[in-house]
Amino acid sequence: MPPAVVYPSRAVGTLWERRDASGEGLARLLGRSRARLLAFTTSPATTTQLATRTGLSLGAVSQHLAVLRDAGLVTSHRYRREVHYATSELGVALLEPSGRVPSGSRSGRSAGPSRPVR
After folding, report:
1. What is the spatial distance between Cα 58 and Cα 118, in angstroms, rounded to a whole number?
2. Which pLDDT value is given to residue 111?
3. pLDDT for 44-71, tens place per residue?
């Protein structure tokens, strides 16, 4: 066999590493407020509860939730006089790679009889 020089390919060691372990990629994609709201809806919450948790106004939370719902990232269910928002399966899939979904946070989602809000 003739002599040959063997060397490793460049950057192969970082090929499978996550580029953004901080979860900032989701914030850059959706915007910081929408990404935070999506993370806070891993368990059902009302607009008022989300406004309290995030420090956003009720109107801002409502507008962001409408966009997230239209994109299929959250679902809304009416229970008596309240509307509860929860992360959809698509929303969970978006959150999981960024490491922002606490384990077991989707269990016990029942907030009463659920019916989609139109």
Report:
1. 19
2. 40
3. 999 999 999 999 999 999 999 999 999 9
Torsions phi, psi for 115 (to 5 deg): -145, 130
Query: Rounded mean pLDDT of the chain?
Result: 79
Q: Residue 57: how many CA atoms within 13 Å on its side-chain side?
A: 3
Contacts of 83 (CB under 8 A, 6+ apart): 46, 47, 76, 77, 117
| In the block, residue with structure tokens 């978006």 | 94
Which residues, 6+ apart, have CB-to-CB distance to 97 below 8 Å? 18
CA R_g for the chain:
20
pLDDT of 106 over the 50 cut: no
Query: 75: which residues sit within 8 A by CB, 6+ positions away?
Result: 69, 85, 86, 87, 88, 116
Burial class (CB in 10 A: 0-12, 13-18, 19+), 55: exposed
* Stated pTM of the model: 0.64
**CA atoms of 91 and 74, how far apart (whole Å):** 6
